[in-house]
Amino acid sequence: MKVLLTNDDGIYAPGLFSLYQALKSDYDLTVVAPESEMSAVGHAITLTSPLRVQEVQRNGSTYGYAVTGTPADCVKIAVQELLERPPDIILSGINPGANIGVNLLYSGTVSAATEGAFLGVRSAAISLNARKNPDFGFAAQFSKEIIRFMIESGLRDGTALNVNIPALPKEEIAGVCFTRQGTSRFEEYFERRSDPR
């Protein structure tokens, strides 16, 4: 089974590498991710600048491809140019921090999965509700269950899931709950400063 991995935190992000490590022995993986941090870019795509794709090596072998674009660009270029055929599944993440409420509209992680759905591929955004020192181990292993569900449940092509995993030990997680998107939002703070120019 062909699985495309992407994110919004960049090709070198630990959440993406954890996902890769957890899945590499069971799936045919391709990693295509932004060359640098692209959090909170929403569903932006590149229109007037060239998109550059560079192979990335890790431990002496090909790890994936870095793209000078947004998460949505990465999915588009992977599906339409880099892969011989569309992937069976697209996973975006693992994002450090939950993607919930109206903040989904800002999320590059969720937008990458949504772009996959637009292209007719079953996709999931995976986020871990931890920003400081996140341990991606359980979330990465749980991604196998996400893939299994996407296949065995008969989830239609072109469907995107947004999966948020609590930052708790496995034994403290009661189970999986399907819910609607909420309308909560994070409090925003601005700090006034003087520009020395």
Task: Describe it.
25% of the residues lie in helices and 24% in strands. The chain has 197 residues and is of the alpha/beta class. The chain has a 7-stranded mixed beta sheet with strand order 3-4-2-1-5-6-7. α1 (14-23) links the parallel β1 and β2 (28-34). The radius of gyration is 17 Å and the shape is globular.
Mean pLDDT: 95
The CATH architecture is 3-Layer(aba) Sandwich
User: DSSP strand (E) fraction?
Assistant: 15-25%
CATH fold category name: Stationary-phase Survival Protein Sure Homolog, Chain: A
Largest sheet: 7 strands, mixed
As for the number of domains, it is: 1
Relevant CATH superfamily? Survival protein SurE-like phosphatase/nucleotidase
Which structural class fits the helix and strand makeup? alpha/beta
Q: Which parts are unreliable, with pLDDT below 50 for 5 consecutive residues or more?
A: none
At the first level of CATH, the class is: Alpha Beta
**Spatial strand order of the main sheet:** 3-4-2-1-5-6-7
- Total number of helical segments? 4
Which of globular, elongated, flat, extended, rod-shaped describes the shape?
A: globular
Helix content: 10-25%
Question: How widely separated are the two ends?
Answer: 55 Å
Radius of gyration: 17 Å
Count of extended strands: 7
Helix-strand pattern: EHEEEHEHEHE
